[in-house]
Every structure is written in C-alpha cells, then in structure tokens.
Amino acid sequence: MSNQTRIETRNLNLRFGSAVVLKNLNMSIKSNFVTAIMGPSGCGKSTLIRTFNRLNDLIPECHIEGEVILNGMNIFDKKVDVVELRKRVGMVFQKPNPFPKSIYDNVAYGPKMHGMAHGKKLDTIVEKSLKDAALWAEVKDRLRDSALSLSGGQQQRLCIARTLSVQPEVILLDEPCSALDPAATAKIESLMVQLKKNYTVIVVTHNMQQAARVSDYTAFLYLGELMEYGEAEQVFKNPSNKLTEDFITGRFG
Amino acid sequence: MVNEQVKEKYVKIFLYFTASFSILVLIAIMFFIAIKGMGMLTVEFLTTAPYRFEYGGIYPQIIGTLYLTGVCMVFAGPIGILAGIYLSEYAPVNIITKILRFFVESLAGVPSIVIGLFGLAFLVYYMHFQISLFSGGLALGFMILPWTVRASEEAIRAVPFSYREASLALGASKWQTIKEVVAKAAAPGIVTGLLLGLGKAIGETAVVLLTAGSGLESFLPRSIFEPVASLPVYLYMIATQGHTSEAYNRAYGAALVLLGIFLVINVFASLLRNYYIKKHRVRFG
Amino acid sequence: MKRQIREAIIEKGLFLAASASIIIVMLIIIFMFAEGIRALNFDFLFGMEWWPSGEKFGIIPTVVSTFIIGLGALGIAIIIGIPCAIFLSEYSRDPIRSIIKSSVEMLVGIPSIVLGFFGLVVLVPLIRYNIGGLGESILAGWIILSIMTLPHIISISEDAMRAVPNSFREGSIALGSTTWQTTKALIIPNAKSGIFASIVLGMGNAIGETMAVLMVIGNPNIPWIPQSILDQVRVLTSTIVIEISYAIWGSMHQYSLFALGIVLFAVVSVLNLISRLIIKEEIRKRW
Lengths: 253, 285, 287
Known about the structure:
Structural class of chain B: mainly alpha
Distance between the termini of chain C: 43 Å
Oligomer: heterotrimer
Strand order of the largest sheet of chain C: 1-2
Distance between the termini of chain B: 46 Å
Largest interface: B-C, 84 and 81 residues
C-alpha cells in the first residue's frame, strides 16, 4: 500500500458566494501516512478537508470547480453517491460532538445505519473501534452511560471510535485537539500515529508544533493557496517558501 | 435634577403597579375558582354523569374532553411534527417556503369561532361526520395545527448543527440523520410544544360547541361518530342557562377541574422544558 | 439508488404535511363563502336591523358594538400593558422579571371560558351593585377582554423594547439621565413600531375572542348601538354562537351567520396582516 496516492486534488477552486476560499489547489495525499494541513486561521484548511467528504454540500452558496480524485474516481462526479462517499471518508470535528446517546450507541450508530451488523457482531465492532481509539479500557464497564458524561478528551476519542466503526479508508481530523487540554491532546496525537497503519490520516491544525510531531507529509496553506507541500522533515527543516519559514519560526499565525 | 429623581420614583411606583396587575388577576381567578369549587370535588361529582340538567356529576365531561383532545392531537401532532421537520430541515429559501409560512401564520390567526363554523359546514354537514367526537376533535386539530408546527420547528432548529454534521459524516442519509439523531434530540422540546398546544385545545369552547355536542350528554360516545360531552361546553351551558345554586356549584366545580387539568399540563410542560435546557447546558458546559 | 428514491419520497411526504395549513385555510375560505355568500349583500352590510324571524339581517349595530368593545378593551390593555412592558424591559431584574413574565404567559393560556365565568360571577355582580345597570355590560366586556388582550401587548412590546441596543442605554445613563428619561427619549421612540404592531395584533385578538366576552356582555335579543357603557350589547362572535344552534340549516338566517363569520374573518385577517407587516418591516430595517 505504501507510496500509493489516495486523494488527489486537481485545480480545485472553491468559493462561498463571491468570497474565494481555495485557489487552484493541486496536491496528492498518500495512503497510510499522516498528512497535516497547517496554516493560520481562515486560510481555508478546514474547508479543504470538508470538500474531501463533500460536507460543504450542506452550505447552499458554496461553489466548487476542479476535481478531487479518491482512488481514481472524481468525487464530484454525478454518479457518486455522496452517502457512500462519506462512509469511506470519515471525519472527526473540532469540538467533540458525540450524540446525546449512550457510549455504545454512539459507536454502533454508523454500522446500524449501514445495516452492517447487529447483535454479537455489532458488539465486536464497537469493542474493536473503541480499542482502536484507545478508549476501551476507560469505558468498557459503562458502555450504557451517556456519552455526554465523558470528559472532553474521552468524547473526542469516542468520536474517533465512531468514525472507525464504519471502516473508512480515509480519516479527516479537523483541529481535533483545539478544545482539549495538553494531556488529552497527547493521547489523540499518539492515536493519530497509530491509525496510519490502517488508514490514511489527514489532520488540519493551526498548531505548527502538532504538525511537526505527528505528520509524515505537511502542507502549508495561506489565504487559500498551497504555499508548501512535501515530506515533513523537508518542510520544517528547509522550507522553500519565505511565508512558510515565517510561520514555522512563529513570526505569525 | 432633583425634580427628575422624584419623577423617577413616581414612575417606578406606577410601573410596579401595572406590572403586578397580571399577577393579581391570575391569583384572583385561581383563588376564587379554587375556593368556590373545592367543595364540589367529591368522588361522586367526578365519577357520575349529569342528569336533569343541573344535577349529578361531570364524569362524561372530563373523559369527553380527554377524548376530544386525544383525537385533536392524533391529527395535529404528527402533521405538525412532520411539517416542522420539513420547514426546519428541507424547506429551501424560496417563494414556496414563504407561502407555506404565510399560511401557517394565517391559520393561527383564524378566530376560533370561524374554525367552529367551518367545522360545522365542512365536517358535520358536507362530510357527514355529524356532530361528533370525530368532527370536534378534527376541528380542534385544525385550530392547534399552527402551534404544533411552530413548536416542532423551533425545537428541531434548536438541535446543534454538529449532531447533523457528525451523522452525515458517518455516511448516514439525511432522513436517517433526522430520524435517529435530530428528532430524538428535539423530542423533549417537541413534546413541550405539543403539551402547550394540548393546553390550548382543552379549554377551547366555541369550536367544540359547534361541532362536538351540547356538553350535557350523560353518556360517553360508543363510537367516534357520536356526540361527546366536554368540560368547557358543560361549563358554558350550566353557567349561562342554569340559574339555581345547584347549577352554579357545578359550574364552579367544572371550572376548577378544567383549570386543574390546564395547570397540570402547563407545569408538566415547563418542567420538561427546564429539564431539556439543563441537559443541553451540561453538553456545552 | 433505492435509497435516493426513498429519500425523495420522504421529502415529498414532509412537504405535503407542511402544506396541510394551506389546504385547511383554503377550505375555510371556500366553505365560509359557499355558505355565506348568499347573505353578503347591501342590506346585510349596511342594514341597521337584525331580526331573524322577520328576515332582516343588517349588521351595522353588531359591527359597531364589536368595535366599541374591542377598542375599549384595547385602551385598557394599552394603559396597563405598555407600562408593564416598560417595567419588564427597563426596570426589572430576575427573579421578579421572570415571575411576572411567567404569570403573563399563564394568563394567555387560561381557558377563556373560565375567565368569562369568573367575569360572570365576580365582575358582573360587582358592576350591578356598585355602578348600576344589569351588570352584564360593555364595561364588563372591556375589563374581561382587556385581561385577554394584555399578554399579547406585553410580550410583543417588551420584545421590541429589549431589541433596542444596550449601547443606547449606556450612552444615556452615562450622561446622567434617569432610567425614565432614557426610556422616554430613546427606548420608546426606537421601539414604537413594535409597540404599534402589538396594539394592532391585540385588536385582532380582542375582536376574534368569543367565549369570555359572550359571558359578560348580556347579548340582548335585538342588537343595537349602545348608549352607555352599562348597556348590554352583542358582538359578531357572540351572535354567531348564540344563534347558530337554532338557525335552520339552509335558511337565510344560517347564511347570514356565516356571512358574519366572513366579516369577522376579514377584519381579523387584515389586522393580523398589518401587524405582521409592521414587524417584518422592523426586522428588515434592523438588519
């Protein structure tokens, strides 16, 4: 699987009404690596990953040109079933957003919706997802408790488990640690590194250190344009762009 | 300057007086009805049927009112919830949605007596449903519908957008998302709204008087197409046409029971609303 | 593809449920006119006599009485309601504010028949023994109806006043004005269209109200234009309720009562429409 392109954007342009958010983006994202997209607030990084699962469709004034190729298929193609696409491209949000249901039901929600499993088999999926999200040990005795009773960090790992439960190919994480304390952040970060064994992980962050810690490939987005993209080491040690250097050395952002 | 301070004081006193007016009226009504009606609240009064106009109890009236509001909610509840879902989740921003909203508002503004006349002409005579539980309940449903629509829409709108995003991102379809996440999260709010609509239906007199029955029936309907007694119409009849103390005592008793049912529904609705608000605060806190 | 079809069907079904209000309003209009159109003629609209057994159906006295009752009740409701709204918006804090607000909300919900009954057994004797007349009177109607109209006026005008930005208040208070000076000079002028909307809406509510009024105004057999506030009167709504039960179905009497309903519906709809337009205009201006 290594070194295989999972997602590729071709001349991707996106605007909300008349406001241009993404400008002519070309990048290819590799399977089984963590790719971090960093940049200052408002640079379009969240919008970018929300195009990968077409969540921007929910915004009526959003216009998209160009292509996003997932496994060789343009996701904007008319034939594409957006519901199926979102099953394959999972997403974890900035603020933990568990459903007001039990811990178990949160994780079981996706498989149930897709008719993937029930009974014992569903239990297995829930357990495996929670284990993969490093949450099983903490919640295994209270699966029927409300998800809202968990701490912020636990809630976010629950959301990751919920995403894993439908066995996506790609996991998008939209600033997953911005609402969490440092200890919870460290747990999520190590989780991201583990997840790349089985998934393609794309994380958006405005935190440059986080990008440096977790990513194999790093992109720097500035005002909707891709300024820098390459192997993390390359980007952090030897950026080719002056703006990237300024961002990395903390001169803005 | 001193002058203005004095003026401020008098203004304040006047404002306090006007503001306490509604409380005073409310308390006066409740106490008066409670004190006068309390003596009537016997098991016999609550469990027997009226006879010879001003004697007997109000059992068929209490049950009849519950039947009527039941039929009303069977109609206005589901349609109101479905319409609320449409307006909050599906309705595009266009002229058709504007027209939909305009008519919901218009229906809310129709005087209840006009709904009663319409029920009489359409349900009773044109559709041949007769003066009956069915006609009365349905006409009440027409009256309550705008409230159930608006209450459902508001409750559904109040569900955080992040729930919808999370569900859609898992590959659930729009309807699955609404059914499994949005509607369930909005349920307490919807129920609160429906209960408030129910409170409105329970006390409605004009509509029921024209479509459901004379209020004095001493038997419960055996089918949905038979006339049915109800508390408000009973109260109206006995208070305006009975002139003996027997009649007045029964009117006080009926008014107290009606007020009691109304209060129970309202208290329950507001408890539910507080619970709902608290639950959501926990989530965000 | 099956799922897409199912989703589309569900959307259509929900749309249908949302259209129920349109269907009902249309049916109301159709049936009201179908029954009432035959009576809607010149003699009906401008006649001074309403005498069913003599086949005379003139609505002028009833309409005039309706407006006398409605306007008087509105007057009382304004005198008490607007100051109450000012109190809630400018002078009060929790918990007093929330206590008053919830009692106002409760007042809206109290079954109107109970309120009317209260009027009949408390207010009517009070007027009869202390002021004069039979007790069942315009005055009693005004008082009971003003209680019903009050909550609508309070809640909408309070919303309008609270919508005035706080910076206005701070600016004025910082200049050393009292709360009342601020209210008079800044809050009321800025909220006046909202207050006006609440008054128009209150008028619509007062005119459309049935049971509470019916119980306390006496409803003489022959409608007339009253001479004093202690006179008994008849309004549009009470005439319909009282006479519909003995009007023979298919008679001119029945058509005339439906025509009364059309007049009532038209007046109330126009008032509601005006108040809605004022509120909409206000919202548009603010954004």
